[in-house]
């Protein structure tokens, strides 16, 4: 097993007792000035994104800002608003990349965990007030929760049937989702029901309440990431930088208000709680007797992970990798694995049944898990493969069989993803792979090979891997992918049909302003430093 895989409280390392930098020292005076500039640069970006969202974001149909003095001007100046928003996006991404240089493991001096946390607060604070952007899913949350509040079943009817097409909450839902039932778990809809009881059909207050839930989920991620990173021998600062300060997290969980924040947060917190009494073991033993409270913490952790699955079902995969760790701690035999699987299965069934029946919604959510598959998007590799095969058939004169090709390719993907996850579980059980790394890759495989893929789905893989993958190659690859997706996907709330000139003008303006801003701070941009390939891994005893 890789050092630090199952470090429990009984074998805490010096890095755990002195949280922050692993083997790096504190920043010197020049580097602290650089950090201040990076923080302010990113904060200005957040402010610009917030301002731009007033006109470029996915505003409610009845936009309360429209008639306000000054602020209402942005909703009438789409190109200017988009330029503001894109400038904010570019500046946040550049600030994050610069922060990565100061938090890179292996540096002689690096950012500490408290400094990283304060930076996160500075960047997130303005984003709390943005108009939802990058997605309109939060309006679906409100409408589906209202269906629950009215005593109807959100798993059999969509907002249009249950609320009516003219209901203020229905009007905010994208047309493609107005007729579809909810794909979300009973815990999330129960929380949404409470939100709707408090806010009624007031869209702005409802969005604010759902953003508070997303921020709660992000707080869980920030709490769990450095703790898990220390247990798995990874620099906690690097984990926070990649897993919490990531622009995709800021844009899609905070600004976009996606419920992945709550699901991933519960999943990671549950994983961390389950390991609180787990002793450190190696493949050859010794395997100590049960520690006091150890079984209780396993049950608590599994229950919290199950609550994450009751928000969005992919979180349930974490139980498999947690079970592998417990089985290895018991001796690593197949008998141990089956015994642990049975125990965790009981916890999962009890908690999920209590949540489903206690919410009054039952298990209807199981039948709607594949609702998103009704959308055929090129972003999903298996769907894109089906499109390509179907169009090739048309070119060859075989007829239009695109739908059949997509169905076939998605079926193949539905097999490949779980098979990869199963292989990763087996490798983790055989001590060939860190379980948290296997969890991240497994979630990525299941979602990438799924019927539909959205940019924020990447976070299911990136956030666990930030705490479990201990090499700079992964860090660099994840940095490139995250920055590329963050810049490529604009914070728009409209399709701009008939106004295609808006986007290029906005991009040109944003690039020009960003270049001016970079020129102004160029003397304070941290320089990249070479570090060895394994530098992300922190020393463990």
UniProtKB/TrEMBL annotation:
Region annotation (Disordered) maps to 1-29
Q: GO molecular function terms here?
A: glycosyltransferase activity
Q: Does the keyword Glycosyltransferase apply?
A: yes
Annotated membrane topology is: Multi-pass membrane protein
State if Isomerase is listed as a keyword.
Answer: no
| TM helices/strands, residue ranges | 41-62, 82-99, 120-135, 203-226, 295-325, 337-358, 378-399, 411-429, 441-465, 477-496, 502-521
Q: Where in the cell is it found?
A: Membrane
Task: State the name under which the record lists this protein.
Answer: Alpha-1,6-mannosyltransferase
**Source species, please?**
Actinokineospora cianjurensis
């Amino acid at each position: 097993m890789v050092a630090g895989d199952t470090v429990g409280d009984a074998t805490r390392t010096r890095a755990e007792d002195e949280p922050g930098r692993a083997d790096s020292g504190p920043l010197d005076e020049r580097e602290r000035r650089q950090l201040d500039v990076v923080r302010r640069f990113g904060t200005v970006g957040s402010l610009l994104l917030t301002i731009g969202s007033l006109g470029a974001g996915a505003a409610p149909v009845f936009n309360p800002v429209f008639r306000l003095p000054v602020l209402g001007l942005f909703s009438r100046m789409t190109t200017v608003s988009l330029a503001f928003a894109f400038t904010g996006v570019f500046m946040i991404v550049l600030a994050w990349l610069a922060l990565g240089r100061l938090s890179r493991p292996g540096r002689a001096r690096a950012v500490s965990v408290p400094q990283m946390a304060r930076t996160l607060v500075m960047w997130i604070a303005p984003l709390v007030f943005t108009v939802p952007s990058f997605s309109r899913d939060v309006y679906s949350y409100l409408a589906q929760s209202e269906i629950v509040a009215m005593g109807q079943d959100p798993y059999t009817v969509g907002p249009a049937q249950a609320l009516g097409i003219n209901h203020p909450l229905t009007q905010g839902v994208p047309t493609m989702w107005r007729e579809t039932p909810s794909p979300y778990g009973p815990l999330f809809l129960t929380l949404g029901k409470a939100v709707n009881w408090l806010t009624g059909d007031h869209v702005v207050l409802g969005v604010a309440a759902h953003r508070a839930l997303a921020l709660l989920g992000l707080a869980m991620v920030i709490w769990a990431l450095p703790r898990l990173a220390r247990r798995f021998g990874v620099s906690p600062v690097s984990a926070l930088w990649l897993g919490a300060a990531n622009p995709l997290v800021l844009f899609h969980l905070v600004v976009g208000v996606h419920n992945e924040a709550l699901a991933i947060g519960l999943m990671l917190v549950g994983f961390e709680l389950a390991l609180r009494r787990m002793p450190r073991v190696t493949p050859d033993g010794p395997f100590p007797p049960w520690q006091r409270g150890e079984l209780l913490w396993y049950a608590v952790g599994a229950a919290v992970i199950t609550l994450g699955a009751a928000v969005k079902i992919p979180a349930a995969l974490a139980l498999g990798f947690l079970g592998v760790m417990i089985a290895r701690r018991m001796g690593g035999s197949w008998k141990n694995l089956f015994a642990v699987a049975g125990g965790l299965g009981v916890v999962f069934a009890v908690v999920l049944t209590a949540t489903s029946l206690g919410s009054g919604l039952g298990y209807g959510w199981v039948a709607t898990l594949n609702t998103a598959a009704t959308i055929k998007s090129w972003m999903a590799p298996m769907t894109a493969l089906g499109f390509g095969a179907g169009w090739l058939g048309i070119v060859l004169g075989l007829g239009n069989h695109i739908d059949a090709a997509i169905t076939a390719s998605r079926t193949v993907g539905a097999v490949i993803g779980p098979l990869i996850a199963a292989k990763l579980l087996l490798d983790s059980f055989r001590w060939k792979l860190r379980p948290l790394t296997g969890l991240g890759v497994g979630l990525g495989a299941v979602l990438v090979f799924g019927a539909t893929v959205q940019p924020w789905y990447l976070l299911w893989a990136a956030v666990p891997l930030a705490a479990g993958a201990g090499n700079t190659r992964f860090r660099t690859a994840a940095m490139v992918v995250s920055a590329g997706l963050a810049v490529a996907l604009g914070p728009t709330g409209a399709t701009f049909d008939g106004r295609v000139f808006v986007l290029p003008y906005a991009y040109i303006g944003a690039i020009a302003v960003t270049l001016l801003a970079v020129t102004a701070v160029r003397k304070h941009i941290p320089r990249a430093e070479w570090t060895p390939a394994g530098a992300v891994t922190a020393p463990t005893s």
